[in-house]
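so ive been stuck on this for like two days lol. basically i have the seq below and the ligand is 2,6-diaminopimelic acid, smiles is in there too. i just want the complex predicted, nothing fancy, no docking runs or whatever. if the output looks off dont worry ill sanity check it later, just need somthing to start from for the group meeting slides
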Amino acid sequence: MKVTLEKVHGSMNTFYMVEGLERNDYAELAMQLCDRDTSVDGLLVILPSQTAHAKIRVFNRDGSEASMCGNGLRCVARYVCEKEGIREAVIETMKADLKVKKEETLTDGIEMYSVEISPISFRLEDLPMEYAELEEMILQPISEISEEILFSAVAVPNPHLIGIVPEEIQKDSTHQHFWAEKFNGQNAYFADGVNVSYVTKLEQGIFVRTFERGVGFTNACGTAMTASALISCIAGIVPFGEVTVYNPGGMVKCTVTETAGAYQLLLTGNATRISSHEYQWEKESQESDFLSSRKFEEQQQYEKFINGISGIVDQFA
Ligand SMILES: N[C@H](CCC[C@H](N)C(=O)O)C(=O)O
């Protein structure tokens, strides 16, 4: 079967994206690809969907699967829209089918896409997070960390802990690094880890740096930037509507609206293809001997595939 492997990025949050490969060991593939190419933050898998144009699965560099990836969803949106010759599509994610849309191409040929970020929950159990019997944490200090930094916990639907910090703490990432490592290791608060973002107000908009669960510090985290824009609107740091969010990888626009007490989030930014490669995955051998030597045969084929891919990765890196 034909397998398409692309190296892509949204706001310099870089991924391998693969279509045409149905396997049960994407976590292993993600770890092997990211080990071979350390510039990559994870693996996006495009699969058929019963309810949408396509389905996305997201694997971090450590092999853990996430329920959502804002920067990655923009890249998948571009792949699907260009393949189908459409400007709008619906992509199935772990918790929701989300609308995606091609936006006006920027002058320097940069393709822009907008994606829905949903569902949104402030219930700590939806991250999951346990803290002092609270049901929600919105703009509250975590006394173990600091009395000055106001933290908020939100699932979009992957888990985010967002702290509003002064410039001096934003400038030196050691404070954020220490607590992000703690909350993604053995700890009493986040059973599945958490993406940790520090937000600082700018003249226009906000700056967000994120330590991503399963990855570490990245140039940008789409869901984190969007969740940070939401928290910044709730905190009155920026007005509701279109929020300009800067990050080490560049800039995105996050649109935050509230209708009948519910929030809606839209993330708009680039969806850039760095390289694309077709790979022929040999047809499985005859059913009879395939079943008998399935493990060995599949292992042999898999080794060949990984070596083939790593050859491709070397070209991409
Ligand atoms: N590390 C995230 C998944 C990737 C999200 C990020 N790359 C984005 O663009 O939203 C998690 O484990 O929840």
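The chain is about 25% helix and 40% strand. The chain has two domains: 2-113+270-314, 124-269.
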